[in-house]
Amino acid sequence: MTKLRLALVFGGQSAEHEVSLLSAKNVLSALNKDKYEPVLIAIDKKGRWFLIEDPQTLLDEDQHKHLFKEGKKAGLAVLPGQNDYQIIKLETGASIGRIDVVFPVLHGPFGEDGTVQGLLKLAGLPFVGASVLGSSVGMDKDIMKRVLDHANISVTKFMAIGYGQKLSFDQVRDSLGMPVFVKPSNMGSSVGISKVTNEEELTRAIETAFLYDTKVIIEEFIKGREIECSVLGNEDPIASVPGEILPQQDFYSYEAKYIDENGAILDIPAKLSEDMVQKVQNLAIAAYKTLCCEGMARVDMFLKDNGDLIVNEINTLPGFTKISMYPKLWEETGLPYDQLIDRLIELALERFDRERVLRTDVDL
């Protein structure tokens, strides 16, 4: 059996760079080496692409500092056009060889927001996950909430401001109440998020969020359970069993997600009635379809005491670390990590085959 040459793209020009390395390590470890020949492509924080010859450099966290070491890497360029010459080494101009499918294990801007997806489409390369539209809409929390609200899907109340715009504390308090959460509009992994209860904290939180994005979103505080549901598929997606986040800190911060092993409890499956499980799954699929997602996404929502469900956000390239909710939910549903990767790759190839037969000429 001919192995699929799978390009694992990770790192990225984002504050979620380090999370991406952990996710990619887990995907590489789980890959069935009888089915796939992995090709490791790392993107540094300046956006430069490099071929990583030694997989151990990724597998060993102590070696991560050497991933981008000068003299230990081959710079790469991605070329447009459907051929076997899409990715070349800059130094020699030689192709790195046939690439059958790309798995972009990238989180945040310049990876999860449609930028890399557009580049891969131009190069005629199949890739795992949402395409350009679903990625970009899903990444921007402001646009995402507007689209969901237009489709009559309940979202948290929010306000958004661009760089240089101002909102007074009174405006925020009168519209959203207190406390509120302040976030970069285009960021994940709880990077740059602050919980705000007074005017001084609001000013500081907005300044912090603007360090990571040119648009900031301010959201109402919702008292309720934090429920997450994984979705998988293209035109006919399916949903996993729901899980619940039980933060042991003030909220589910970056530290709680990736550093403090006791920062949160993941209750999988969530303790919900059968009826509520169905409602969560239906809402997750509805949000997924509304936002034009493909391949995969994790939908995060709040369950209020009165039984109302409110979508918080969607993640089109969710974490794949050993403690990440997306693969853990599918494992509990009956789809183990390695089979989940297989299915994601199948979905990528199915979409590519469907799109490449679309006509590019017009009969007059």
What's the tally of helices? Answer: 11
Radius of gyration: 21 Å
Percentage of residues assigned to helices: 25-40%
SSE-based structural type? alpha+beta
| CATH class label of the largest domain | Alpha Beta
CATH architecture of the largest domain: 2-Layer Sandwich
TL;DR?
With 364 residues, the protein is α+β, with helices and mostly antiparallel strands. It has helices at residues 17-30, 56-59, 115-122, 132-139, 141-150, 169-176, 199-209, 254-258, 274-290, 325-333, 337-355, and strands at residues 4-11, 36-43, 49-52, 74-78, 87-89, 101-105, 158-162, 180-184, 194-196, 215-220, 225-233, 238-239, 243-247, 264-267, 295-303, 309-315.
Topology:
Elements lengths: L3 E8 L5 H14 L5 E8 L5 E4 L3 H4 L14 E5 L8 E3 L11 E5 L9 H8 L9 H8 L1 H10 L7 E5 L6 H8 L3 E5 L9 E3 L2 H11 L5 E6 L4 E9 L4 E2 L3 E5 L6 H5 L5 E4 L6 H17 L4 E9 L5 E7 L9 H9 L3 H19 L9
What do these coordinates show?
The structure is a single chain. This protein starts with a strand and ends in a 9-residue tail after the last helix. The chain has 364 residues and is α+β, with helices and mostly antiparallel strands. The mean pLDDT is 90. The protein folds into 3 domains: 4-127, Rossmann fold (3-Layer(aba) Sandwich); 157-220, ATP-grasp fold, A domain (Dna Ligase, domain 1, 2-Layer Sandwich); 225-354, ATP-grasp fold, B domain (D-amino Acid Aminotransferase, Chain A, domain 1), CATH 3.30.470. It is built from 11 helices and 16 strands.
